[in-house]
Design a protein that fits this description.
Oligomer: single chain
Radius of gyration: 17 Å
Number of strands: 8
Number of domains: 1
Distance between the termini: 22 Å
CATH class: Alpha Beta
Largest sheet: 8 strands, antiparallel, barrel
Strand order of the largest sheet: 1-3-2-8-5-7-6-4
Length: 207
């Protein structure tokens, strides 16, 4: 399974209109495939929307996108309103023991943590992560952890849902107190880190 993350940076104040247009178009786009998730940023890089599409493989992605492009109701009319400043598409695969959760309500706050891994170090990072993620998920669930296959290379992404900022702080505190998280050897493989807080759109399968 692969996941395409499409990140659009919008003009200031453009998120509400983008959500309206996307929701209207999604009723037609979902005939070809469903979303995994749709978020918009609250803290971090502002005015961004992130939509995540699952595909069996790159061939399936090509087939679905070709079929959807023929639909007169897709894509959303973002260009008509001059909403989009920048677009980025990346294809990810899930890390060991870190598959996407099933659709449902987990948030409403999601922390979106992106690490740049040193060149050539991703296999080791994935081994460490897969062997130790059970330590962290004892304290709060994970949405998914993924690494890039196409797009910006050497990226490792993990997404965490929380009921509140207090629950986030408490889960992170408890995990750190074990002395086993983050796992030994992980930090030496990381070049840089960033984090955002994102909120699900009303029509997102993950809430």
């Amino acid at each position: 399974m692969i996941y395409e993350f499409r990140t659009y940076t919008l003009i200031p104040g453009g998120v509400p209109k983008a959500l309206e247009l996307f929701e209207a178009g999604y009723g037609h786009r979902r005939k070809y495939s469903e979303l995994t998730a749709f978020w918009f940023t609250e803290v971090g890089a502002l005015n961004q929307i992130i939509h995540v599409w699952p595909y069996e493989n790159m061939e399936h992605r090509t087939e679905v996108r070709s079929a959807a492009a023929k639909d007169p109701n897709w894509p959303p009319a973002f260009s008509k309103f001059g909403l989009v400043v920048d677009q980025k598409a990346e294809v990810f695969r899930t890390a060991p023991n870190s598959a996407f959760v099933e659709p449902g309500t987990y948030g409403p706050i999601y922390e979106y943590r992106e690490y740049t891994i040193k060149p050539g170090a991703m296999p080791k990072l994935l081994e460490i992560w897969g062997n130790n993620i059970h330590i962290r998920t004892e304290f709060s669930p994970m949405t998914a952890a993924l690494f890039t296959d196409v797009g910006g290379l050497n990226k490792f992404l993990h997404i965490w849902p929380y009921a509140s900022m207090d629950s986030r702080a408490e889960a992170r505190k408890q995990a750190s107190a074990t002395g086993k998280w983050p796992p030994a050897g992980e930090q030496e493989l990381i070049e840089s880190q960033s984090a955002m807080l994102v909120t699900p759109a009303p029509f997102s399968p993950l809430q």
